[in-house]
C-alpha cells in the first residue's frame, strides 16, 4: 500500500499548517510566496535549494525563504514524515514592527526553539487554531527568524511605501477570483507599477502577480480536497481551463492537481 499522504488545514491570518509523509519522490521543483518552516519527524527529506542538495534528518528544522525554488524527495532510509508551516512574510514584517522579512541562510539546522514552536502549532492539528493562538505563533516565529538571520538588523520600511504595498495586497486578496490589471493596482496603491513591484517584493517577498496566483491556487487546493472536480475548481478560481490550472498548480505546489486530490483525500 502506498503510504504517501498530505493533510492540510485552511489558511488563517498569516499561517497554514501541513503534515505529510512520503516514501520516495514528493514534489517537483516549485516555490511559494510564503516562508516554509518545517520539522522532519523521521527519515531524511532531501531537496534542491539555492544551488545545492540539502538534507533534513529527523529532529532537524528547515527554513525556506519566500519565492525560492525547491523540490522534495526521500533520502537514505526510503521514507520520511514532516510538519510544515507556511508563514506569511507580511505577518512576519508586522510582528517585527515593519522591518523587512528576515533572511535565514542556513536552510537546515538543529534548532530546539523552532522545533518546539512547530510542535506547539500542531498540538490540535487539524483542528483550527484560535485567533489568539495564531497571533502568538506568528510573533514567536518572527522573533525566531530574526534571531536566525545572519544579516544586519533590517530597517523599517517607509510608511508610505508600506501602506501602498499593503493596499495592493489587500485588493489582490479580495479580487483573487479574477485577473487584476496593472492599472487597477496603480490606482489602488498610488504608485506606478514598477515602483509598486519593487516595494511589494521588499515588503512581502514576492511579486504582485505571483501573490495573486498563489491566493487563487490555495482556494483551488481546498476545493479539491473537499471533492470538487478539477474542471469546476479551475473555473471557480478564474483559470482558463484545467490544463491552465495544472501548469500553475504544479509550479506552486510541486504536484499535479490530480495527485494532490489522491494524497489529500487518503485517510
Automatic annotation (TrEMBL):
InterPro entries: AraC-bd, AraC_XylS_family_regulators, HTH_AraC, HTH_AraC-typ_CS. This is AraC family transcriptional regulator. Keywords: DNA-binding, Transcription, Transcription regulation. PANTHER family: HTH-TYPE TRANSCRIPTIONAL ACTIVATOR RHAS-RELATED (PTHR46796), TRANSCRIPTIONAL REGULATORY PROTEIN (PTHR46796:SF2). Residues 166-263 form the HTH araC/xylS-type domain. It comes from the Bacteria. It holds the Pfam family HTH_18.
